[in-house]
Amino acid sequence: MRTMEHLLSIIAALLYCSAISMIIPGLVQSTGIKIKLVFVLAALAITTHGWLLSDLILNPYGQNFSILNVASLISFIVCLTLSLAMLKTRLWFLLPVVYSFAVINLLAATFLPSTFLTHFDGKVELLLHITIALFAYSTLSIGALYALQLAWLDHKLKAKKALTINPNLPPLMMVERHLFKIILIGTLLLTATLLTGAIYIKEMFDPENAHKAVLSFIAWALYCILLWGHYRQGWRGKKVLWLSISGTTLLTLAYFGSRFVREIILN
Hints:
Layout: H1 2-29, H2 35-57, E1 58-59, E2 62-64, H3 67-85, H4 95-111, E3 117-118, H5 124-158, H6 172-200, H7 210-233, H8 238-265
Antiparallel strand pairs: 1-2, 2-3
């Protein structure tokens, strides 16, 4: 079984790297990118990645939701979402980033020891809460990537470097529109996460879990302020970037912080 997992991990990593190698020259040299070939490579990588995750997570004794498996699962969701969006939107600046993180996460999940068994049998509410939380975090992570891309494009334009000659880069206003739609969806999902947690997770406010709830709520408040500031006050630029990055950082600390110490450092 471990040999199969190692093989799937290496195959997925190579496919992701192949997709990256087809994108980078187009960004650097402003040449055409073979969209269909990149999509096929990405589809094969994501399929193999999903197959690997099913082997890593599904366990005869429960579901192995270790921190490394969850990180790889989030990378899978982000890669799947952006790869599908690739067909309609020029995401070439973001795809090498998310594919690189996917390679790191899936190799770590396969080759580094980490176990955290969860039992969802008869716990539909817990499964619902975790599913919404995963999609909320993935969506807001994509929002943070869009914010970084928006800041980079804005910097280049202000530096008077012509971006229009590179057909692989998206228009600034289109990136901004997509950014706020993504953050709005992610904030709604985060709201649902907090509500389902408060209703169904009795241990949510216990001392060992309270920091997760507090950090998640602060992140939710930041995203609400960001959306209010944009739609009511017209906020753009650095305010949006820092609020988006801060929100994602707080969510990362809420979920991964203590678990990283317990599962990786202490082990």
